[in-house]
């Protein structure tokens, strides 16, 4: 099969389109014939082996899994002996094995990280959902326990996670503020945001407005500024952060955040996303009921995965970036 593989860490130059063997599936895994694969900042990070502290997990000198990509949508090709919920031919979406495998014609996916594709989505739209949808759902529902009428602010509202977070928060009945740049103001408003702040013109931490929940996908404000924008019982999820610090990325900021929130009434929640079928099912309900629609920035063919990852790596994606895999199938 064709796949995007990398033999060492580096810039997108390390990614090559190669012919490799199809992945072998375990008893509880499904072999998916990939039709589309979503791109995430995590793919860019693992490509570069960043942060260095994560290399024991990624692979010390080179990636253990040499195929990048985790978000996947396609058709079931084969199932492991213990798989009960899927049959060959089913249209599905989910997360490939941890640390990669989706930018390829076939991907191995655990049965527990897979669900039927939402009926109203294309494969490209479905591949845009898993990672960003999981993060937004986990942040707003599980950690924020966001309720109707609460004031929610999403920093980085036009990105992959932000576009889901705005829509999911609205579906919970929250009063939503999205922070984005000028070119994305109308798009974020069209997602249902009640208020949109153009960060090139206004600093949301200095407006005097206070929020019950802030999902920060960007990490461009100090923790004390973010706390000033939080209500006395408000919660911050410091989800974003770049890789300027190549050893620990945003690890230092998260430790500072734990310390600075330890003795105040405001709260902090940090988490690493975990793929779960039940969350794919919740996301599917939101999508099929029309409350959430994936926003696609651009699609690239598999042969241009380098450009797709570079676009996401620059940090200004407008919704999700997706790699399409024709895989001998005409859509
Ligand atoms: N907790 C977890 O397990 C987990 C999982 C996945 C991802 N993440 C992290 O979540 C973060 C966001 O991921 P993503 O997929 O949403 O990224 P993304 O799709 O690359 O989106 C980035 C967005 O940030 C916006 N942005 C850039 N500078 C900004 C600023 N100064 N103020 C407000 N917005 C700004 C950009 O909008 P403009 O173009 O308008 O500037 C862009 O839309 C990343 O840091 C990622 O590593 C965490």
Write a structural description:
This protein has 331 residues and is α/β, with parallel strands linked by helices. It folds into 2 domains: 2-129 and 295-324, Medium-chain alcohol dehydrogenases, catalytic domain (Quinone Oxidoreductase, Chain A, domain 1); 131-268, Rossmann fold. 26% of the residues lie in helices and 26% in strands. The protein contains 10 helices and 15 strands. The chain has helices at 41-48, 55-58, 123-127, 130-143, 160-171, 185-190, 223-228, 251-261, 277-288, 305-313, and strands at residues 2-6, 15-19, 29-39, 71-79, 91-95, 106-110, 114-116, 151-155, 175-180, 195-198, 211-216, 230-238, 267-268, 296-301, 320-324. The strands form 3 sheets. Strands 3, 4, 5, 6, 7, 14 and 15 form a 7-stranded mixed β-sheet that branches. Strand 14 (296-301), helix 10 (305-313) and strand 15 form a beta-alpha-beta unit. The longest helix is centred in the middle third of the chain and has 14 residues, at 130-143. It is globular, with a radius of gyration of 19 Å. It binds NADP nicotinamide-adenine-dinucleotide phosphate. NADP nicotinamide-adenine-dinucleotide phosphate binds at residues 40-42, 131-132, 135, 155-156, 158-162, 179-181, 184, 199, 217-218, 220, 239-241, 271-273, 312, 315-317.
Shape: globular
SSE string: EEEHHEEEEHHEHEHEEHEHEHEHE
Bound molecules: NADP nicotinamide-adenine-dinucleotide phosphate
Mean pLDDT, rounded to whole units? Answer: 95
Give the class from helix and strand content and strand pairing: alpha/beta
Ends: how far apart?
A: 19 Å
